[in-house]
From TrEMBL, chain A:
Keywords: Cell membrane, Membrane, Peptide transport, Protein transport, Transmembrane, Transmembrane helix, Transport
Pfam family, one: BPD_transp_1
Naturally occurring in which organism (per UniProt): Ameyamaea chiangmaiensis
Family, as annotated: Belongs to the binding-protein-dependent transport system permease family.
Assigned GO CC terms: plasma membrane
Keyword check for Repressor: no
Compartment list: Cell membrane
Name of this protein: ABC transporter permease
Length: 333, 549
């Protein structure tokens, strides 16, 4: 028997070490941590830095710049005095990125929007991998009729374009809310976009999990366990599940990125996060009418989405590379 | 939602006078006109504007810039009739020589048949405007067999049509000037003609219409100008109206000269650009309108007058003006009679330092302290309030502002945006239990009754109906009696009648069934090819008067 200090490192440790050697992945983790941290600080930013309520209209308000009270809505420079535009970036704490058409601080809303966008995206991805994991493992392990039924359901869901599917579900749920038994979820509850986004991506995640389980089902160690009379439940928990965890972990950041994009699209279409709450998608929608005069209102949340999605994709690639080692190691046992 | 028809002030910014230059094709664009061509049914602003160049009624409003001071003027009638029998009888003598666009001469039977047809096709104003005619009750009950027996009597020999009323109606002649009182041939089918248009007497006739594509009008070959004020001869030979572009694209297309005029308003984010670069192509005009939040007096928390008054005190009308594009395009509204309309007397009960018993001359600032005190007294803080607004950008921005105001008063407020085509009827139906509905009102004809009586009389409230224009569900018999008296007195003593209308306006605001927000100005933006922009306060931009270079 070897001492524990001389044991080869476990598969997770190997994966983490591999990830730690991947600079791109480390930068991605750093960027994501920064975005999450900044979003969590939204209430503090609104209270102590911008000193505004980012959920209340303030078009008739003023902001102090260099000791002067400046109107948040500025008259347009034209001889007919037509229209007003929200104040642009001030470079100061208050209205750092300017105001939107409701006179609200864009920077503060961006941080609050990030909280909702990131929460919805991560929760939806988590819920999706749980549902997809159950479907994929059950279908792949039991095969036969169970697999045929589940696979056809997934095929049908897959046949509908994902955004069309999400929009259809959203219109119904956002207009009527969601009632499940004694529980009612109101239309402005964040659970609605979370559930919708999780559902529409289940086929995308369930497929690779099912394929992996089907391969494992015929592997030597599973066949050996069956031969020894190990119950199916135990095989699922002790042999199958640990070996598909890698696949699920790799899928998670990619699904989070997809969920973030979908949430933004739904919110942009007013069928995701409901006002007065903000998300990056709703802020882009707010900025749509200002694209000629204050493009930053739409560009800033757009950039935030691009950065987070890019980081998640790079992290997903890094995880895939790192966890391949673990799976090889597992099969070697 | 905005209905269209009456008005009063004039064009303010450049109205180019030029040598008459008939000819050319006028190219117009709008997102959609969304309406039947049937003049007895069409009720949307853009369609009414076109309809004014195709149809005439017995009466009309001057098709010219400038305030409407004397009410409706004769159109197919040759003189404005004098009421007889104490206001129960009106005799119209028809002009000679007027022909429909199919060549047929207009006769008295066409007039009588047109009024019967308004009831047969269930015209939206048949009951409200002409329900006062003898025989109208039977027509409202059995439209298919409407005869208006004894109500409209044609006399071919005298070339006259006589209207008999069941009671005096001070606005009868004004209502005859509304576009839906158009005269069409007697043999016009008694059903909604949809995309087919009945023949008219105006300077144009429809030659093609596709609700999703566009419409084309060409000169009516039988039109001869009989009154420049009532129906002036047209300049362009042809009008091509194309649908489908959104407002942003419309602005760009008009800027580039691809179209000569856009039917939709210039979006807020393009106002600066348009005002800076195309000053000489912009016309701003006043018209009697009011944008307001209708408070349902039968639903909590607005069934408490203190809450309604509190919201009136709390609303920042300066912010509302900003949402409408600034002071060049809107002004704060404090009462339901618009500025400039006969009967308007400045009175602002809900501003800092004012109250219903000592109103200010104009709105100054919100009074949040008094508003909060009223809410505290009502004990309604913490209740939920949903504002139902049309799903347009400006409406939603205003609704969001109102939501913030309600939140600052202690309510849990939210905004529900509904497609503009649906919202206007949705908030009218009491079965929908709408607490607060955001809307706008442009009266069909320029008279105080078209605002305060239409919007707040007991007769205008029809529970559980989509056609209940009294969206607040407000009914006060004393105020109703005051408005009836104002109408009756106006027939014989106009100044005294107008003073009573102003009193009714103040009485309504004391009960606060609505929160007046703004009165807006209209902006018309034309392309480089056209000039002679004439904006009528009733018909808005007169398409027939644009001249194509």
């Amino acid at each position: 028997m070897r001492s524990s200090s001389s044991l080869p490192p476990g598969p997770w440790a190997v994966a983490i070490r591999a990830l730690a050697r991947d600079r791109a992945s480390l930068v991605s983790v750093g960027v994501l941590a920064l975005m999450v941290l900044a979003s969590l600080m939204a209430p503090l930013y609104a209270r102590y830095v911008s000193r505004t309520d980012p959920f209340l209209s303030n078009v008739a308000g003023q902001v102090q710049i260099d000791g002067r009270a400046v109107d948040i809505m500025q008259p347009n420079d034209n001889p007919l005095h037509l229209g007003l535009s929200p104040i642009g970036p001030t470079g100061r704490g208050a209205y750092l990125l300017g105001a939107d058409s409701q006179g609200r601080d864009v920077a503060a809303r961006l941080l609050y929007g990030g909280r909702n966008s990131l929460l919805i995206a991560s929760a939806a991805a988590l819920l999706c991998v749980v549902m997809a994991g159950v479907v994929g493992i059950v279908a792949g392990f039991f095969g036969g009729v169970v697999d045929a039924v589940l696979s056809r359901i997934m095929d049908i869901m897959w046949a509908v374009p994902v955004y069309l599917f999400a929009i259809s579900l959203s219109i119904v749920m956002v207009s009527q809310g969601l009632t499940i038994g004694p529980f009612t979820i109101t239309s402005d509850n964040l659970l609605i976009p979370i559930v919708i986004i999780a559902i529409v991506y289940v086929p995308y995640a369930a497929r690779p999990i099912r394929g992996r389980v089907m391969a494992l089902r015929n592997s030597e160690f599973v066949l050996a366990a069956r031969g020894l009379g190990v119950p199916s439940a135990r095989i699922l928990l002790r042999d199958i599940l640990p070996n598909v965890t890698g696949t699920i972990v790799v899928l998670a950041p990619l699904l989070t990125a997809l969920a973030l994009l979908t949430e933004s699209a739904l919110s942009f279409l007013s069928i995701g996060v409901q006002a007065p709450a903000a998300s990056w998608g709703t802020i882009i929608q707010d900025g749509e009418g200002l694209i000629y005069t204050r493009p930053l209102v739409a560009v800033a949340p757009g950039l935030a989405i691009v950065i987070v999605v890019l980081a998640l994709n790079v992290l997903g690639d890094g995880l895939r590379d790192a966890l391949d080692v673990r799976e090889t190691s597992r099969r070697g046992h | 939602m905005r209905r269209r028809a009456a008005i009063f002030f004039a064009a303010m910014v450049p109205v180019c006078a030029a040598q008459a230059a008939p000819g050319g094709t006028l190219r117009l664009t709008a997102h959609a006109i969304g309406s039947t061509l049937d003049p007895h049914i069409a009720y949307l602003q853009l369609q009414l504007q076109v309809s004014a160049t195709v149809y005439d009624g017995l009466m009309t409003y001057p098709k010219a810039a400038g305030p409407v001071t004397g009410g409706a003027i004769p159109d197919l009638a040759d003189v404005r009739p004098v009421p007889q029998d104490g206001g129960l009888t009106y005799v119209f003598h028809l002009r000679d020589g007027v022909r429909f666009s199919n060549g047929k001469a207009v006769d008295v039977e066409d007039v009588a048949a047109s009024f019967r047809r308004m009831f047969k096709v269930h015209g939206p104003t048949a009951g409200s405007y002409f329900g006062v005619l003898v025989g109208a009750d039977a027509c409202l009950k059995d439209a298919e067999h409407c005869a208006l027996a004894g109500g409209v009597v044609a006399d071919p020999a005298q070339h006259t049509v006589t209207f008999h009323l069941t009671r005096p109606d001070p606005d009868f002649l004004n209502q005859l000037g509304f576009a839906q009182a158009a005269i069409v041939p007697a043999d016009t089918p008694a059903h909604d003609m949809g995309n087919e248009a009945p023949f008219g007497t105006g300077p144009y006739r429809y030659v093609r219409y596709s609700p999703n594509g566009g419409m084309t009008l060409e000169r009516n070959p039988y039109f001869r100008e009989w009154s420049h004020e009532a129906q002036p001869a047209a300049y362009p030979d042809r009008i091509e109206y194309r649908f489908g572009l959104d407002e942003e694209a419309e602005v760009s297309a008009v800027e580039n000269g691809q179209y000569d005029w856009m039917g939709d308003g210039v979006p807020l984010d393009r106002l600066g650009e348009v005002g800076r670069r195309y000053t000489d192509r912009v016309t701003i005009s006043d018209f009697p309108n009011i944008y307001y939040l209708a408070l349902n007096v039968n639903e909590a928390p607005f069934n408490d007058v203190r809450v309604r008054q509190a919201l009136n005190y709390a609303v920042n009308r300066h912010a509302m003006v900003i949402h409408e594009g600034g002071e060049a395009l809107a002004q704060p509204a404090c009462q339901m009679l618009p500025i400039g309309l006969a009967g308007f007397e400045p009175s602002c009960a809900y501003t800092v330092g004012a109250a219903p018993d000592h109103p200010a001359h104009a709105w100054k600032a919100p009074d949040l302290d008094r508003a909060r005190a009223l809410v505290r007294a009502s004990g309604t803080a913490g209740q939920t309030v949903v504002i139902v607004a049309p799903a347009g950008a400006t409406y939603l921005a205003i609704a969001t502002e109102l939501r913030s105001t309600l939140e600052s008063l202690g309510y849990v407020a939210s905004v529900r945006g509904i497609n503009q085509a649906v919202q206007f009827t949705y908030i009218q139906n009491s079965a929908n239990h709408v607490q607060a509905g955001l809307t706008g009102w442009i009266a069909d004809y320029p008279a105080p009754a078209a605002f305060v009586q239409t919007l707040f009389s007991c007769a205008s409230f029809h529970p559980r109906s989509d056609n209940s224009i009294n969206m607040s569900g407000f009914c006060d018999p004393a105020i109703d009696a005051l408005m009836d008296r104002a109408g009756t007195v106006s027939m014989t003593d106009m100044p005294a009648g107008l003073a009573l209308w102003a009193q009714a306006d103040r009485a309504i605001m004391e009960k606060a069934p609505a929160v007046p927000l703004t009165q807006i100005r209209r902006i018309d933006f034309v392309g480089p090819r056209v000039h002679n922009v004439v904006v009528s306060p009733v018909y808005q931009l007169l398409l027939s008067q644009l001249q194509v270079r």
